[in-house]
Amino acid sequence: MHGISPDEADPDLGYIVPDSVDGPAVITVSRFVEKPNAPLARILIDAGALWNTFIVAALAQALLRVFAQRFPQTVAEMRSVIEPDQCTGAPPDTAIDLYRRLPGIDFSRQILQNSESTLRVFRVDDCGWSDLGTPQRVAETLRRLSRLEDIEDDGLYVRSGFLSLAAQHAGLQAERIPH
Question: How many CA atoms lie within 13 A of 131 on its CB side?
Fold first, then answer.
């Protein structure tokens, strides 16, 4: 998982508390809390928590093991129906039936939270990351990016009608550097 240093106590985001504040690039996790209330978010930040970017790098088998620890019956049922119909190559009716009755699962709350012993976090420096999980956050990001339209960084930003993430990042970096 990737974690970003928070700049505020935001109850709309998940928090990862690394075991150590200064450590190797990949750090073990002591606590993972999805969308805590604002006072708890502040406590987590004071304890060195990072925002969860939900950028995950993992082997599929490792994710499946964590999932199976929380929902063993669901994983067992899924494994029993993954064989395609040998004649048509289509999923068997049992797979379709299982899919229709699968429970809704919140990956962060129901899988990652309370699985800290299996988690690792990679601390990412401030890079302009924004959570786009709500319409308000998308709107704020677009407002911030539109303010950068007038910034030119050695010709990096080109008004072409397309959003250049590299140019936007450069503009954000230029905005933070005092002139």
Answer: 21
pLDDT one digit per residue (tens) for the chain, 179 residues = 889 989 889 999 999 999 865 555 788 899 999 999 999 999 999 999 999 998 888 899 999 999 999 999 999 888 888 766 667 666 677 888 888 888 899 999 999 898 888 888 988 877 778 888 878 888 787 777 766 555 554 444 444 455 666 666 777 777 766 65
pTM for the model: 0.69
Report residue 27 as tokens: 């750090």
- Cα 65 from Cα 9, distance rounded (Å): 32
What is the four-CA torsion angle of 93, 96, 100, 105, rounded to 10 degrees?
A: 130
Structural domains present in the chain: 1-129 (3.90.550.10), 130-179 (no CATH)
Residue 174: which of 157, 162, 159 has the closest Cα?
157
> What is the distance between the alpha carbons of residues 127 and 172, in angstroms, rounded to a whole number?
9
